[in-house]
Amino acid sequence: MKDSTSHTHKKKAVLKQQSAFSFLLLLLYGMMLLSSCGTSRRAAMLSSLELQNDVTDSMKRQFLLTSTKHIDSAKPAEIQMEITRIETNSYPEQIRLFAKVYDTTGHYITHIAPPYRSDQKYWYLLKEKLGRSTVTIDDFKVREYGDADSIPYAIMLSVDFSGSMSGVMDAISMGTELFVNMKQPQDRIGISAFSKDYTVKVPMWKDKEIIVNKFKSTFLEGQGYYSGLYDAIMKSMEVFTSEIPDTVPKVIVVFSDGEDNYSQARLKMILDTAKTKGVNIFTVGFGYPNDEIMRQIAQYTGGKYYRAKTKEELIAVFLDIYRSLRNFYKVTYKAPEYYGIHKVFMGLDFSSDSVHCEGEYDTAPLGPGFDVADGFKYPIHFDFNSSIVRQESMIRIDELAELMERYPKLRLEIQGHTDNIGGEEFNLKLSDARSKSVMQELIKRGIEEKRLRGRGFGMSQPVAPNDTERNRALNRRTQFIVLAK
Hints:
Blueprint: H1 2-31, H2 43-48, H3 57-61, E1 67-70, E2 79-87, E3 95-103, E4 107-110, E5 123-130, E6 133-136, E7 141-145, E8 154-160, H4 169-181, E9 188-194, E10 198-205, H5 208-218, H6 229-243, E11 250-256, H7 267-277, E12 279-286, H8 291-299, E13 305-308, H9 311-326, E14 328-333, E15 341-349, E16 354-362, E17 375-378, H10 394-406, E18 411-417, H11 424-444, E19 452-456, H12 469-475, E20 477-484
C-alpha cells in the first residue's frame, strides 16, 4: 500500500512539473511578440521556441495592445516595434509607414517623436533593400499621433451575411456593436451587410446610440447563401465618394471568411480603386478564412489583416483596430525608384537597447489579381535610332526578371512602339529590334525564351497625338501584355 501511495505521489509530482513547464513556455511565448520585429538579443530565443499544440493560429500571429505608457516609464529592454501598414498611394514621391511601439506587457509607448517631444533622436535607422542592393534613407520624418489628435475618420463596417458565416452571426452582432461603442465623437461610422446583394444598414452617421439602435433593428435582414465580397467593397467605396469629403481619412473594416462566389468585380479592381481613392481596408477573418485573399486586400490597400476564432479574440481585434487609428507613428520619406518588392528596415536606439523592425511593400506593375490581356508599361530607354538598352534602364530589366521569377507561369509579350518621326517601315523595324533586345536581356537573366514574345508595332498604335514633343515621348514606349499566368 505504501509503494502504491508513493508511486501515485511521484506521478502527480511529474504531472505537476510538466504542467508548470508548459505554462512557462506559453508565458514566455506570450511575452515575445510574434512578428519580424524585436530586439536582436531575443531573436535566437524566438526561433528556437517550440510552440504548444493548443496555441491557436491567431494567437501565434497577433499581439494586441490595451493601453498606453510614457517612454519615461517604459523599460527599454521590453520595447518592441512593428510596421503595421504601408501606404504607397503617392509612390515614389512619398511613402507613409505606420508603426506602433509597445512593450511586452501590451502598452503602447508614447512620447518618442514630435510633436510629443522636440526631436526624433530615437529613430536612427531607415533603409530599403531593393533586389540585390540596399539604400539608406537619410531624410525621413516621424510624426507621433495620440489621443490628443482628434482626427475625424469615416469608417464603413462591411459584414459578410452569406451562408458560410451563419455559424458566427452572434459574434458578428456582438462585435459590431462593440466597435460602434468605441467610436470617437468626430468619427462617422456606417454599417453594411452583403451576401449576393449589398445593403447599407446604417448610413455614415455620428451618433453612436442611433447607429447601434438602427443596426439592431435591421440585423437579421439580408442573409443569403452567396457571397459578393468584392462587389461589397467596391460599393462601400462608392458610399465614401458620394458622402465623405476627400480630406477625411477613409477606412473599410471587412468581417468575412474571404470567400467570393458571386461578384462581378475583380480583386485587381478593388486594389486599384482603393489606391486611387485613398481608402485603407482592414480585414478580419473569422474561423478558418481564406488567408491569402484577406491578407492581399489589406496589405495592398494600406490596411491590416486580423484573424479571430473566439469572441474574446474578436474583442481584442476591434480594440486593436481602433487603437491603431488613434495611436501610431507615421514615418514619411521619398522612396527610391524600384518597381518590385521593397523590404523596409527601421530601427530605434534607446542607448542601452536597440529595437529593429521590418516590413515590405510592392510597387511591381503586376499585383494580386492580374489577368490575361492586362498590360503595363516600363520606362526602358534606348539611344536615338538604336535598339541597345541604355545602361540606366538595366535596373528595369532586373525588376522584370524578378517579377517573372515571382510568377513562374507568367508569359509576356514585349511590345515596341515609336512616334511618327521617320518612315513607317524604318519605325516598324526599329520597334521590333527594341522589343527583341529587351527579350534577350531577360533571357540573359535566366528567364526561359518560351515565356517571352517580342513584337514591334512601329508608329501604328499611338496613345497620344504626335503633335508635340511631350506627346511623341508618350508614344515612344515599351509595353508588356500578359499572355498567360
